[in-house]
Design goal:
- The complex is a heterotrimer of chains A (295), B (762) and C (161).
- Chain A is of the alpha+beta class.
- In chain A, 34% of the residues lie in helices and 25% in strands.
- In chain A, strands 4-5-10-6-7 form a five-stranded antiparallel β-sheet.
- In chain A, helix 10 runs antiparallel to helix 11 (240-253) and helix 11 (240-253) packs antiparallel against helix 12.
- The longest helix of chain A has 23 residues, at 264-286.
- Chain B has 762 residues and is an alpha+beta fold.
- Helices cover 26% and strands 24% of the residues of chain B.
- In chain B, helix 14 packs parallel to helix 15 (535-562).
- The longest helix of chain B is centred in the last third of the chain and has 28 residues, at 535-562.
- By secondary structure, chain C is of the alpha+beta class.
- In chain C, strands 2-1-5-3-4 form a five-stranded mixed β-sheet, with helices on both faces.
- The longest helix of chain C is centred in the C-terminal third of the chain and has 15 residues, at 143-157.
- The N and C termini of chain C lie far apart (57 Å).
- Classes of the chains: A alpha+beta (295), B alpha+beta (762), C alpha+beta (161).
Chain lengths: 295, 762, 161
């Protein structure tokens, strides 16, 4: 563990001040499941942890009927998937929150942390993009909102400026006829980093797909919103043919790398497979059918 | 389950709670890393970032200037080790190699090779100091596979090393006439007339197989705490499978007499063969000598993976001939195993075990021990056998299919029986091979129908020799009728229980009356490692002998008390001593009288038992393969094994289940991933993927109890063979499910997908 | 240089004040500062579960918690499971089922199981396997651990008369 200091923020403003004073090597400590490992392995220089788990804003979980969902940036996964309203209205968030790490990781890890760690393989991010979520950022210059899809700018990189932190994530309320599904592929059945992950969102008007979002993770420097996949789906009924066209669009759009976790060929193929599977499940959810997060 | 015959035993065969259990469920048990001594320093190791590099300069001055740092050591702090490479009698235990693997001298030979160590007052300071030790390297080209290594163009990792012709598995012979680059030794084993055997065959197939590097994966990292006192006496507390083996290693590396060294085995958090060799222990000792304080060292997980001894990556080519009725006529294998940076792979064991379940009159195995720039391999559960069995079992499966014979029937027709000679010339006696195959044939699993798409069933055999060697046991009768049983065998998974049970059986007393205690190397006779599936067998022999001595001594004492003719006094199986005139004394009664009749009674035994019973296993596995992702899910698993007499059946089952799951890991998910520079890329338990609770089903076990006539209670080793069949069984199941036969393991989704994918995609 | 901090927390039911290095993890602090050696370091990276403890009643890996974070918190380690001289049903069940071989992963499994049964007193085998997927055991193949957990759930439901 590299030499570092610990400070507990007493308010969001205090956190901003601590971050700003701490300079570029100050890091927010939420669940710590990424940053503590990075500090220990010295893969990132960290001189100060600013603990934001004692603030009402960062630990929020509010689901007001019809008005969307506010998830505190440090709210741990277990609270998110344990919430009945979230489970009913945002099952794709449960899909992700309940498979990040194991139970003990889920006791700490947060979606805000997942977003800010900005790994291309982050499991929490594709559903947030598919849901059209927004990161609420506070910093020395005040508050600003950045869509989840614009948040990460590269592996480990994001839009946060000096002294800024994500306070919460806002997710729009689900619209009638919509369904979202997130799936990932890992070699084991738990405890792995996604080789590829995909979130798909569909909104139907009658039998016709009115709106679609397909987001592929771990297959480009940041999670990829595949516009061509949406174009293949919108304006017609969902069929195996349109699904295959969308899957082909996902395969064509990704820019994966070869690394120890997966090959280019494997990732490209899986992007297509998971696009198909998530679209079928999203349609079932849109129809009101129960699709369990886990098999 | 096969219904066992009525047990002739009172204690053996029952399932009592282990004596050390309460301490281990309350967190009180003291493992190696739990020791704390006054004034203790904390040591850390600096490791090479290069797979192959000349070490030009090591400058510790900045580290030594850091407040709290007390010492830095390099290889020059060890006594000079003569380079005995020319001494061909020492193939795998050349002292310079042993020392250099602990701490590199002129060259670093693998990523993770230790180059320096530091001791400081605080673990954080010791870690900070590592970054301040300056090392100048000249990177050299790494050699990363047996194919590369054996190529004439390859750099010679040990320029003075020559290929040795082995006479037998552990017996080096002369220098080979054909020096093969980076090959430390060649062993040929042969019986019959191979050419005639193949001429006799009606079908011959030849196939190639490869396996990756896997690690034992014990959850407890290596640790060692050393105190070298002012009188030159060294005490080391640690987690080890072999306290005496560690004492020997320390004596050789440090050039100390064994009498100056005391090794104290703490509880051990898993080993599977990987906690025998010396790694940090000699460094902790030298750091303690330099500082005059105890020094504790614990590896981080990445160090465990790239700095200790995994198993060999392998290449095996096998050729098998058979008659149309399935009768095997000849079998030939070429095995090249990576040994890592220094010689000593288990390739000979691979060649020795792969054909052993079968009656093949003509056999040959050529075994090559190949040096590469990777960590020196260590023993791992049935070392060498899983990869070789994978090759043979897959080939046999394919042969059975070609001949349209059921794969289990194919094995039954060729089953080795008592009298069958195996490739090293030994003829089997009292083996349970056929009984295991029969039990497999009758098992619910084999007789169930496998339904569903993309599913397949595989079956494979496995063989392991098991071990004997030295063990000691001292048993002292207490006045309250209990017995303190002192042993030198470390308890790695229920050995205290299995040994206490055998003593209770011998003495006709209750299991609870025996109090086992594992002691240090000053307190018991030389006891070989807990490993090689030997402890319940060999230390069990010692325990039994100690019990028999107690019986004799108590008979003496009863004769004295009764003033009876010694010949008329008998210690009976029920723990009662009976004499003339219907006089009798129970064990507890006589125990009370020992002080007044001549003092303590102690039974002692120091044994090196012959009569080791080998063992066979048959595993049946059902898998489902996702045709779109190539992910393999194990649906059902049954392990059938000849276990001899199961002393504590629950721990026997546990050994089988644990071994099978390690085999599942080898077959599907576990492997070292190296980059082109030879750096290990996945040195964490996140990316070195051992099976989790969700990756395996319940492991059904069927214990076939074919008692070993070479042991008083019929004990055979059980721990190792269960890791042998899973690779072949799973590979065959994948073939049944997909039509693709994996020739390279692990059959990770990444690799298997390449086979399943249509060529036109992407 | 490292700096030292004083942390006040409730450790296994005892109000406790301890001196820690500011870069100590909770696992470091439990073991090196408090001498509670029951929590084990297997990977120091959150991938094995051997160091699992309850933090304010929630299952966490103590290697992924900073000691400083526990100021004002409640921590339960394996040493805090047994009540006086009585083992918990889960501890008894692990012994009866031979659910440990080397025992190094056992503290983590016990703490994780206790957390599971507090939340779900009657889990299915699949639920047990999901909950415990972050705890690695290399000796047992998990079979006897799963059996012990299911048995412990039954025992807890029917307290011994």
């Amino acid at each position: 563990m590299q030499d570092l200091r610990y400070a507990r923020a007493s308010s969001v403003a205090d956190a901003v001040r601590l971050l700003a004073d701490g300079g570029p090597t100050a890091r927010i400590l939420a669940g710590g499941t990424d940053v503590i490992v990075q500090a220990r392995e010295r893969t990132r220089e960290i001189s100060l942890f600013v603990d934001v788990k004692h603030l009402p804003e960062t630990m929020a979980l509010r689901s007001a009927n019809g008005a969307g969902l506010v998830i505190g940036a440090a709210t741990p996964c277990y609270r998110i998937y344990g919430d009945a309203d979230v489970a009913r209205d945002y099952p794709s968030i449960v899909d992700a929150a309940s498979l990040i790490g194991g139970t003990a990781i889920q006791g700490r890890a947060s979606l805000g942390g997942n977003l800010c760690n900005s790994s291309p393989a982050a499991d929490g991010v594709p559903p947030l993009i598919a849901l059209g979520a927004t990161a609420v950022i506070t910093g020395p210059g005040g508050e600003r909102r950045v869509p989840a899809r614009e948040f990460a700018t590269g592996p480990g990189q994001n839009v946060l400026g000096a002294g800024e932190l994500v306070v919460s994530i806002e997710v729009p309320a689900p619209t009638p006829g919509s369904g979202v599904r997130f799936l990932r592929f890992i070699p084991r059945n738990e405890m792995d980093i996604a080789v590829v992950n995909v979130a798909s969102a569909l909104r139907f008007e009658g039998d016709t797909v009115a709106e679609a979002r397909v987001v592929v993770g771990a297959a480009a420097p940041t999670a990829l919103l595949v516009e061509e996949a949406a174009q293949a789906l919108v304006g017609q009924p969902l069929t195996e043919e349109t699904i295959e066209t969308a899957a082909a669009a996902a395969r064509a759009a990704v820019r994966p790398i070869d690394d120890m976790r997966g090959s280019v060929k494997q990732r490209r193929h899986l992007a297509g497979v998971l696009t198909g599977r998530t679209l079928r499940d999203a349609a079932r959810r849109a129809r009101g059918e129960e699709v369990a997060s886990h098999p | 389950m096969v219904a066992p015959a009525k047990s002739p035993y009172r204690v053996v065969g029952t399932r009592p709670v282990r004596p050390d259990g309460t301490d281990k469920v309350t967190g009180r048990a003291n493992y190696g890393s739990d020791i704390r001594l006054p004034g203790m320093l904390f040591g850390r190791v600096l490791r090479s970032p290069h797979a192959h590099a000349r070490i030009l300069r090591i400058d510790p001055s900045k580290a030594l200037a850091l407040p709290g740092v007390k010492a830095v050591i390099t290889h020059t702090d060890f006594p000079a080790a003569e380079d005995a490479v020319a001494d061909l009698g020492e193939t795998s235990s050349n002292l310079k190699w042993l020392v250099d693997n602990v701490l590199a001298s002129d060259r670093a030979l693998y990523h993770g090779h230790a180059v320096a160590a530091v001791a400081a007052t605080d673990p954080h300071v010791a870690e900070d100091a590592l970054a301040l030790i300056e090392v100048e390297y000249e990177p050299l080209p790494p050699v990363l596979s047996v194919h590369e290594a054996m190529n004439e163009a390859a750099p010679r990792i040990h320029p003075n090393m020559h290929t040795v012709e082995m006479m037998a598995r552990f017996t080096p012979g002369p220098r080979s006439e054909h020096d093969i680059p980076n090959v430390a030794s060649h062993l040929r084993m042969e019986i019959g007339d191979l050419d005639a055997g193949f001429a006799d065959a009606e079908v011959v197939i030849e196939r190639e197989y490869e396996t990756g590097t896997s690690h034992q994966g014990y959850i407890e990292p290596h640790n060692g705490t050393a105190l070298w006192n002012e009188h030159g006496e060294l005490t080391v507390w640690l987690s080890t499978q072999g306290p005496f083996a560690m004492r020997d290693s320390l004596a050789r590396v440090l050039k100390l007499p064994v009498s100056k060294i005391r090794v104290v085995p703490m509880e051990i958090g898993g080993g599977f063969g990987g906690k025998i060799s010396a790694y940090m222990e000699p460094m902790a000792a030298v750091l303690s000598k330099k500082t005059g304080r105890p020094v504790k060292m614990i590896m981080q997980r990445d160090e465990v993976l790239f700095g200790t001894g995994p198993t060999s990556a392998t290449y095996v080519r096998v050729k098998v001939g058979a008659k149309r009725d399935g009768t095997l006529t000849a079998a030939e294998a070429y095995l090249a195993y990576e040994s890592g940076a220094y010689p000593g792979s288990p390739v000979g064991a691979g060649g020795m075990c792969m054909f052993a379940p079968y009656r093949v009159p003509n056999q040959r195995a050529d075994c090559y021990d190949v040096i590469v720039n990777k960590p020196k391999v260590s023993a791992y559960r049935a070392p060498g056998a899983p990869a070789a069995a994978f090759a043979m079992e897959s080939t046999l499966d394919e042969l059975a299919e070609q001949l349209d014979i059921d794969p289990l029937e194919m094995r039954v027709r060729n089953a080795a029986v008592d009298g069958t000679r195996r490739i090293d010339g030994v003829a089997f006696e009292s083996i349970g091979n056929e009984a295991v195959m029969t039990a497999a044939k009758e098992s619910p699993h084999w007789n169930s129908e496998l339904q569903g798409e993309n599913r397949g069933r595989g079956i494979a055999m496995g063989f392991w020799t098991n071990g004997g060697q030295e063990s000691s046991a001292y048993a002292t009768v207490n006045s309250d009728g209990t017995v303190n049983l002192v042993i030198g065998s470390v308890d790695i998974g229920g050995q205290r229980a299995a040994l206490a049970m055998q003593l209770a059986e011998t003495l006709g007393i209750d299991y609870e009356q025996v109090k086992p205690l594992v002691v240090d190397t000053d307190s018991i006779g030389y006891t070989f490692i807990t490993g090689g599936s030997r402890t319940t067998f060999a230390t069990g022999w010692a325990v039994h002998e100690a019990g028999l001595e107690i019986q004799r001594l108590l008979e003496d004492r009863a004769a004295l008390i009764w003033e009876a003719d010694r010949e008329l006094v008998h210690y009976d199986d029920d723990g009662v001593i009976r004499g003339p005139d219907e006089r009798s004394l129970s064990f507890t009664e006589i125990a009370k009288q020992l002080h007044r009749t001549g003092g303590t009674v102690q039974g002692k035994a120091d044994v090196t038992p012959e009569g080791v019973g080998p063992t066979f296993a048959c595993h049946i596995v059902d898998v489902e393969v996702d045709p779109e992702t190539a992910k393999v899910q194990v649906l059902r698993y049954t392990a059938i094994q000849d276990v001899g007499t199961a002393v504590h059946p629950a721990y026997v089952e546990g050994q089988i289940q644990g071994g099978a799951v390690q085999g599942v890991g080898m077959a599907l998910s576990e492997e070292y991933v190296y980059d082109s520079e030879g750096r290990m890329r996945n040195a964490s338990l996140l990316d070195y993927r051992m099976p989790t609770t969700l990756d395996v089903p319940a492991i059904e076990t069927i214990l076939v109890e074919e008692p070993n006539p070479g042991h008083p209670y019929g004990v055979r080793g059980v721990g190792e063979v269960p890791i042998v069949p899973p690779l072949g069984a799973i590979a065959s199941a994948i073939y049944q499910a997909t039509g693709v036969r994996p020739r390279t393991l692990p059959a990770s989704p990444r690799v298997l997908l390449e086979e399943l994918l249509p060529d036109d995609e992407g | 240089m490292s700096s030292r901090i004083i942390v006040t927390a409730e450790i296994n039911g005892e109000p406790t004040e301890f001196l820690a290095d500011e870069r100590d993890s909770l696992l470091d602090a439990l073991r090196e500062r408090l001498g509670l050696m029951g929590s084990k370091e297997g990977c120091n990276n959150g991938n094995c579960g051997a160091c699992a403890v309850l933090l304010d009643g929630r299952l966490v890996n103590s290697c992924l918690v900073m000691a400083a974070e526990t100021e004002g918190a409640r921590v339960t380690s394996v040493e805090g499971l047994a009540q006086q001289d009585r083992l918990l049903p889960v501890q008894e069940a692990f012994l009866d089922h031979a659910a440990l071989q080397c025992g190094i992963c056992t503290p983590g499994f016990l703490v994780a199981t206790q957390a599971l049964l507090a939340e779900n007193p009657d889990p299915t085998e699949e639920q047990v396997r999901y909950w415990l997927a972050g705890n690695l055991c290399r000796c047992t193949g998990y079979d006897k651990i799963i059996a012990a957990v299911l048995d412990a759930a039954g025992r807890a439901a029917t307290p011994a008369g």
